[in-house]
Amino acid sequence: MKPIVAIVGRPNVGKSTLFNRIAKKRVSIVDDMPGVTRDRLYWDAEWLNHEFTMIDTGGIEIDSTDHILTQIRYQANLAIDEADVILFVTDGKAGVTFADEEIASILRHAKKPVILAVNKMDSIKDAHEIYEFYNLGLGEPTPISAANLLNLGDLLDAIVAAFPDKSSEADDEDQIKVAFIGRPNVGKSSLVNAMLGEERVIVSDVAGTTRDAIDTHFIKDDISYVLIDTAGMRRKARIEYESIERYSVMRSLRAIDRADVVLVVIDAVDGVTEQDKKIAGYAHEAGRAAVIVVNKWDLIEKDSKTSLHFTEAIRSELGFLQYAPIAFVSALTKQRLSRLTELVKFAADQHAMRVSTSVLNQVVEDAVAINPPPSVNGKRLKILYATQAGVKPPTFIFFVNEPEAMHFSYTRFLENRLRESFGFEGTPLKLVVRGKK
Ligand code: GDP
Ligand code: GDP
């Protein structure tokens, strides 16, 4: 997991200019998310072999009619909640303003490192302007000029030095990490609370690193689960920006990155939306196990065919998630909720499943016998050997005579045979083709 650096500061201090200097590339998936791209919320960056992600909190426009101070408070709180390091940018030519003091007063209470940059210090003769910034009470200010690329190395050194110690973030392999994903108001909070409200569940909010503190841990039937990023779900009122759609997309992507199993929550009344598709697509590409949860099932008038029709519609909308089980639930009436934890456990097991090499090669041999590979450009494919190289998701390497002769439709056929033989329900599979050495 890469550390997150959030940039805060009032308008016109030079945040975008600085951002453009530091950011390496836009996180690719965000490219086709409506709304997100324009505001460039979420970028990858690198300094001296440290990779990190930058959030431009200024890109999150809450409501243009809001007072500037309201916006600034949102930004600062968002940074405090999300970032590992906060980069507070000010304008040395303008000096300390009331808005800067407001931001500083919020950031002083953050238990996160804050790096104070004073921008627009374009030449050495500006140096004395820096002193009044000590009054913000955030430690030593770093003078920079984003426009003239002055002192950015020192600034990045300070940022990187403040990153949390990686070794302290123990990653317990025995835990099943679960992310609830979905648009605002589909019922994620209600589902989380219902899941935790179950009798045989022992809940704990684990103190420790700040990032852990927003996760909820629970144990059921001796299995340990972590619900990722439940801060906004369990203490909703405090997180004012939770309902902003663009922000919720970004947050979903980050939760998916950390999860084993993604619960794609869909509102039964609204059905699958474009945003659901994109986020579920990201989970698929990232190789996470998935369960589709159709919530608010109580609101649907049902006959004997209703769930069948829903299933068909979801299968056609989310074509790439054919492997994901679908659960029809109601957080309100608790209908079928107990099954949800079972499904999570099931999908996690499938995601981590290993099959034996000999059985795997037998299955591949049988598949080839039933349906021999077609020739591509006059070359006929021969599969020499298959092996499972990894789990989460199950990853298979096929050693072949001519990798170019593997057509994607034949890969799909092999995947289907693997699923028929071994199950792998709830998990994507990764099939890799290699030429013989
Ligand atoms: P943002 O609103 O905080 O994102 O600020 P911008 O990056 O859009 O910059 C606001 C203005 O300050 C623009 O006109 C920039 O060209 C200018 N600016 C940014 N960095 C510097 C700098 O280092 N020196 C000077 N003199 N101007 C700068
Ligand atoms: P979130 O934004 O995804 O966390 O959604 P919430 O859990 O806050 O739920 C949004 C609204 O939908 C609230 O008013 C809930 O009471 C309501 N809601 C949640 N689950 C259900 C459900 O299963 N049935 C019905 N009828 N309403 C629900």
Automatic annotation (TrEMBL):
Tagged with keyword Transcription: no
GO biological process: ribosome biogenesis
GO molecular function: GTP binding; ribosome binding
Keywords carried by this UniProt record: GTP-binding, Nucleotide-binding, Repeat, Ribosome biogenesis
Oligomeric and partner information: Associates with the 50S ribosomal subunit.
HAMAP family in alphabetical order: GTPase_Der
Protein name (record): GTPase Der
Originating species: Anaerosporomusa subterranea
